[in-house]
């Protein structure tokens, strides 16, 4: 979702790893779905839907799902997964979204907002397309990660940084914005959302042993992402 991170460059490699990785398949996605709860019949917007693994799970749970992503390559993979009848659009969260007011009951932003420096317009747009008392469920890089992985850096400063990673054997650069927790939560409040839940979940007990690093196998949880459930006012 940023100019520095271009998923078109490694869409297929990322999507393949996303299917079975501990962080995505057995940690982030199960937590998002648990926070969403019963979504049967609900109109759900999958923000930054990527190749569609979360959209597929939402559809299986009975939701009416629309999705968008800035990456055309990711959307092509999503269309292959979900079929041509699925409402999938190319859109940028930093711009006006191609949906009418009050279009959705729930919006889900799975590992999206940490790519953006300015949240003012994105949060305003999400609030606009949600019904009154609609919910926004989102996950972010945990704010402790940046100073933890970069000793000596100031936790309290908003900082842009890049991680060099490998997805399914292919190198990739992901550029994020670190922001302290109080700034994150104040941004939600200033945008008109009520904070219903903040969660640091464990990973799924269904995770196969081979995807769990040995150092984590005797632990119930670890810190990588943080999860929020927000709600608009009436």
UniProtKB/TrEMBL annotation:
Taxonomic lineage is: Bacteria, Bacillati, Actinomycetota, Actinomycetes, Micrococcales
Species name? Glutamicibacter uratoxydans
Checking CDD domains in the record gives: AdoMet_MTases
Keyword Methyltransferase in annotation: yes
GO terms under biological process: methylation
Question: What's a Pfam family this protein contains?
Answer: Methyltransf_11
Q: What is this protein called?
A: Methyltransferase
| Residues of the Methyltransferase type domain | 45-138
The molecular function terms of the Gene Ontology recorded here are: S-adenosylmethionine-dependent methyltransferase activity
Keywords from the UniProt entry: Methyltransferase, S-adenosyl-L-methionine, Transferase
The answer to whether keyword tRNA processing applies is no
């Amino acid at each position: 979702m940023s100019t520095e991170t271009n998923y078109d460059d490694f869409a297929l490699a990322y999507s393949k790893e996303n299917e079975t990785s501990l962080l995505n398949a057995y940690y982030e996605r199960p937590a998002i779905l648990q926070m969403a709860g019963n979504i049967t019949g609900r109109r759900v917007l999958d923000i930054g839907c990527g190749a569609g693994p979360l959209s597929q799970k939402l559809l299986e749970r009975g939701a009416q799902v629309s999705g968008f992503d800035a990456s055309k390559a990711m959307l092509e993979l999503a269309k292959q997964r979900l079929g041509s009848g699925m409402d999938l659009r190319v859109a940028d969260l930093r711009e006006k979204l191609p949906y009418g007011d009050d279009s959705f009951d729930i919006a889900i932003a799975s590992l999206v907002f940490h790519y953006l420096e300015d949240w003012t317009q994105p949060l305003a747009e999400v609030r606009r397309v949600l019904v009154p008392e609609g919910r926004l469920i989102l996950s972010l890089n945990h704010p402790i990660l940046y100073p933890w992985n970069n000793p000596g850096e100031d936790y309290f400063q908003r900082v842009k940084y890049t991680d060099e990673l490998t997805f399914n054997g292919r190198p990739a650069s992901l550029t994020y914005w670190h922001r302290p927790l109080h700034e994150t939560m104040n941004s939600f409040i200033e945008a008109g959302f009520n904070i219903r839940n903040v969660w640091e979940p464990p990973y799924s007990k269904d995770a196969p042993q081979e995807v769990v690093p040995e150092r984590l196998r005797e632990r119930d949880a670890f810190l990588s992402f943080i999860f929020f459930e927000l709600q608009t006012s009436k």
